[in-house]
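Q: Hi! First time doing this. I have a protein sequence and I read that you can turn it into a structure. Is that right? Here it is:
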Amino acid sequence: MNVARERWGFTGALPPPRFNMARYCLTAAQTTPDKVALIVVSDAQAPIERAERWTYGQLDQAIRRIAAGLGRLGLEPGARLMIRMGNTSDYALLFFGAIAAGCVPLPSSAQLTENEADFLLADSGARVIAMSDDLRLAPPPGVRVFGPTEVAALRATSQPADYADTAVDDPAFLVYTSGTTGQPKGVLHAQRSAWGRRPMYQGWYGIRPDDVILHAGAFNWTYTLGVGLTDPWANGATTVLYNGPRDVTVWPLLMAKFRATLFAAVPGVYRQILKYTDLREFDLSNLRHGLTAGEALSVTLLEQWRTVTGKELYEALGMSECSTYVSSSPSAPVKPGSPGKPQHGRCVAALPIESGEEPLPPNETGLLAVHRSDPGLMLGYWNRPEEEELVYRGEWFIGGDLVHFDADGYMIYHGRNDDVMNAMGYRVSPLEVEHCLSQHPAVAEVAVTELVVREGVSVIAAFVVPRDPDEPEGVDAAPLLAYAHARLAAYKCPREIIFVNSLPRTANGKVRRRDLAQWRR
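A: Yes, that's right. Below is the predicted 3D structure, encoded as structure tokens:
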């Protein structure tokens, strides 16, 4: 390593050489075994006493029994186990039980089609698939199927196993990207990934052992696995998860009933809560603040949430390969329009777009990079060595996001490098145009992309969901174009406004800009 590069690297505490993620997350079982660690709610209207509850002691026993059962079935360390279930306690127990055994769970979405699930099963080489009865598929020969009965039998193993004596860099779990640019690719994480989340504890959550955390996501997403399970348990807190019918009105009800102190969701969920519920009808006095990630938080939504609830909303930016590493928090005040600062100990920088490993100075836009010494960074892409060559530049991992850091250290996000539009030779971030238009009172949601109008000619187009389509301004492009021209350089302004009923999104709520051209109401 040359002298210049020695200045850079992760400066937080490093994990011990022998480290098991499941053991780390269940440490509270030794100190507070009777404390409630997990509450699973199926009926938001039912009395709270009817919710499923697990103490730390019960979790520890069940997870280690599952680990023993997997070993008894002949699964060796490193063997993959695919999980295809809803947000049930069995999902959580299998995920951590496999890690406790030294196996590698593959959490998948309950929303995947059978063909999509088949691809993950084949690509991962999983030897076992655990499925809910309503999500059955026909696996290939040699793949063992676990239904609810088999999972219950695993939990009934008489003698719990000890946690596997894994090394810090041994594989822990495998997640797949959304696959919006092609076939999904597996991201393999190490046991140390849980330790690598430690900068988030105070750098995003401000988490405490007495916290009750309600998460609105599904287990296939690292956002939910981390914020909804891994981090609350590693801090001895209580987590509440909902697996009933999808209805945005349940979230304030659950916050009030279970006295949630932290609530986590994507910005779209906060937007829907504000639109479809009257938060004044619920007692949210226990809620300290909200957490949001997954897509950019608009200034309008932030201000609306603050006005209605009197609570703060802390944003974080991350990726499947390293979870969240830039955030605002009680100790890093919110700067509207920015997801925050690099968390303490992280080594995060903007690198020159074309080449070079020397971080750019403040206010210069470049590619967001995380130093490869970060313990939260992935082990690599599953069976995709050619993909890894594209994302590493020397000692830096580059995920493809365009950003700059201001003089105060706050990161300003300019979108994906391949989302950036070309307007009259200028690079234009769609997020900059979206941020402008989202503040117009007639706009509920907006997404911006390049739209090909004829061969070799494209224009910037804004796809707008009107706040009130019955209002004249809600379906008239002229006022919005004038609004943009008054606030943006001419080359940044959209040439077309296209009104739609909704925006195309992934299962995790992110806008699919590449699908906008085919999106019409």
